[in-house]
Amino acid sequence: MDILIIDDDVLLTYNLKRLFEKKILLNSVTVYGSYREFLSNLHLIDSFDIVLVDILLERDIDKNWIDIIKIIRKKNEKVPIVVMSSFSDIKWLNFAFDEWASDYIIKPFRLKEIEVRIMRWFNIYLHSLSFSSSDNLSYYDLHYCISRNEFYFNDEKLSLTRKSKQLLLIFISSPEKLLKEDFLVKKLWNDVDEFKYRNIRILVLRLKKSLKPFWLDYWIENIRWEWYIFKKDLF
After folding, report:
1. What are the DSSP calls for 161-200, one per residue?
2. Which among 16, 70, 89, 93 is most buried, taking Cβ atoms within 10 Å?
3. Each residue of 34-84: pLDDT tens digit?
4. 11-16: which pairs have CB atoms within 8 A and are 24 or more residues apart?
5. Where are the beta strands (DSSP E) in the chain?
6. Nearest to residue 52, comparing CAs of 30, 75, 70?
7. Distance of alpha carbon 42 from alpha carbon 37, whole angstroms
8. Cα separation of 203 and 194, whole Å?
9. Which three-class secondary structure state does DSSP give residue 156?
10. pTM, full prediction
11. pLDDT, tens digit, for every residue of 169-207?
């Protein structure tokens, strides 16, 4: 899971970052402290699995949090967007939901409360990406158990490293779709540089090696060097 937090409250974002970086399912937490920073990194928005946005971000710019929701929704209709606000007036809540926010949480909130909400929305988002049961993300006979953070093939557990699990989770969340190499790099390391590009190729090879005993290595295909696709080998 990759979380984007858009908020200029340094202490709050620090505490949220610490909270979520302890979660096993988490890949990374990214913080943008301003509307302008969000816009300058808009090309990376598809790499996030959930977005938290402050309703009072940069008070000198009128309603820019609404613009953020609109911009994200144009690019991704499913990703959960949680609005954080010190306003308890019902009109603000309705305003946020009218703009297709997923949830609205009133400040100050308990960190445990937002943790429960975010994990719930993440599970819902995962289930929306592929056929799944309440606790499993599935692609043919390959299953990911969310609560255990484990992969199974025909009920046999796969022995994978943490990074391999993260990579396979990205693949099983977007089966039969072309995924660009820089997208995978951003998802796994929250950064893009030449060193990470070399790492992603090594990581893919290691994952394929781990999947080989199950004949699943053929499900990962490299397309024209910079693209990957995860697709069941029907032959």
Report:
1. -HHHHHHHHHHHHSTTS-EEHHHHHHHHHS---HHHHHHH
2. 16
3. 888 998 888 788 778 899 999 876 554 555 778 889 999 988 888 899 999
4. 15/111, 16/52, 16/111, 16/114
5. 2-6, 28-32, 50-54, 81-85, 103-106, 136-139, 142-145, 150-153, 156-157, 179-180, 220-223, 227-230
6. 30
7. 9
8. 14
9. strand
10. 0.63
11. 989 988 888 888 888 887 787 665 655 566 888 999 999
Q: Which amino acid is at 55?
A: I
Asked if residue 166 lies in contact with residue 173, where contact means CB atoms within 8 angstroms, the answer is no
Report all structural domains of the chain as residue ranges with CATH numbers, in order of start: 2-128 (3.40.50.2300), 131-230 (1.10.10.10)
Select from 44, 55, 65, 32 the least CA-distant residue to 191.
44
CA–CA distance, 41 with 5 (Å, rounded to integer)? 13
Spatial distance between the Cα atoms of 75 and 45, rounded to a whole number of angstroms: 8
- Residue type at 42? L
Q: How far apart are CA 143 and CA 117, in angstroms?
A: 24
| Direct distance between the N- and C-terminal alpha carbons of the chain, in angstroms, rounded to an integer | 32
